[in-house]
């Protein structure tokens, strides 16, 4: 959160990673942001209680990122299986 953020090249974009666990027990989840060379790849190992976990996150954009809309995939893995959630963050880069 927020899903779409405006930013300039080289900016530090801050947000909140929100994970909801609908299982009756806690879960361990590995979440990876795929930076595609426009920001660093990042991975978080999370202990997710039943309910919703909110964790602050940040990504430093490259100084050379082009203006326009950039969509970054966020992948979750639990128990060796890829979570089927459609998770992503969008950054609208303005010059």
In brief:
With 95 residues, the protein is mostly beta strands. It is built from no helices and 8 strands. The chain is elongated.
Gross morphology: elongated
- Arithmetic mean pLDDT: 96
How far apart lie the N and C ends? 23 Å
| C-alpha-based Rg, rounded | 14 Å
Number-wise, the strands total 8
The number of helical runs is 0
Order of helices and strands: EEEEEEEE
What report would you give on this structure?
The chain is elongated. The strands form two sheets. Strands 1, 3, 4, 6, 7 and 8 form a six-stranded mixed sheet that branches. Strands 2-5 form a two-stranded antiparallel sheet. By secondary structure, it is mainly β. The mean pLDDT is 96. It is built from no helices and eight strands.
What descriptive keywords fit this protein?
mainly beta, about 100 residues, about 0% helix
Secondary structure blueprint with pairings:
Layout (H helix, E strand, L loop, with lengths): L3 E4 L4 E10 L5 E7 L8 E7 L2 E10 L7 E11 L2 E2 L5 E6 L2
Parallel strand pairs: 1-8
Antiparallel strand pairs: 2-5, 3-4, 3-6, 6-7, 6-8
């Amino acid at each position: 959160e927020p899903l779409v953020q405006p930013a300039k090249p080289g900016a530090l974009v801050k947000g909140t990673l929100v994970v909801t666990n609908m299982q009756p027990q806690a879960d361990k989840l590995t979440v990876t942001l795929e930076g595609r060379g426009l920001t660093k790849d990042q991975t978080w190992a999370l202990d997710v209680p039943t309910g919703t976990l909110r964790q602050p996150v940040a990504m430093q954009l490259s100084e050379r990122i082009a203006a326009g809309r950039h969509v970054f995939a966020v992948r979750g893995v639990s128990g060796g299986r890829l979570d089927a959630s459609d998770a992503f963050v969008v950054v609208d880069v303005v010059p």
